Amino acid sequence: MICVAAGITMGCIVGLYALFELHYFLRMCLCVVIARCFKKKMHILDSTIVGGICLTNDIDTLLYHMNNARYLREIDFARVDFYERTLLYRTIRNKGGSVVQGATTIRYRRFIRPFTRFTISSKIVYWDDQSIFMEHRFLGSSDRFIHCIALCRQRVIECSVEDVMATLLKSSTAHMDKSTDCLDKLESGVYSRGDTVVMNGTSRLKPQLPMEVAKWLEWNDISSTNLRSEC
Known about the structure:
Largest sheet: 5 strands, antiparallel
Number of strands: 8
Number of helices: 7
Low-confidence stretches: 174-203
Strand order of the largest sheet: 1-3-4-5-2
Distance between the termini: 61 Å
Order of helices and strands: HHEHHEEEEHHEEEH
Radius of gyration: 21 Å
Mean pLDDT: 85
Strand content: 25-35%
């Protein structure tokens, strides 16, 4: 009887692996739990760091460096960590919206060898009324060399990006003065002067549009125009 139960269990596990990339979903769930329950919350304009290691199931057919597609997969886990620790995803959902990947560009500078540790640094570099732009860097654990850099466009639908970011910036003003004037500003919107948000006695600025993002957006617009003309 025990052998039959064990056989059925193994069959189910094999079937799940055949139908789904089971360890991807398990790792994603683990990332969410760790980020939500065991890591400290971060300001929306701060960088988050997650660690990784290149294992045998990450290498390509040449057997001496990480498969190019695995970089994007690792970014998925880093992005989930960022979403949870900054409360970005929760805020979007609370406002009735959702977020999807709109575009990605990635540049490889030096390959990552098998069994090499690395970290991924993630941060928001810009946002507009429709999208949030994130930068992800793969850093060597010892020399901090940037092995790879990726730029991702997160399209937010069914809600305003400016409203989402205003809420997150506003929630970070815990140490502001408790004057009536400040409280009135908090009730009416983000405590700001232009694009400057005052927090913990310092100024947090909305990032200026980076040149590489501006050129990338231009390329995206050209691509969209060309594709529309083919329809």
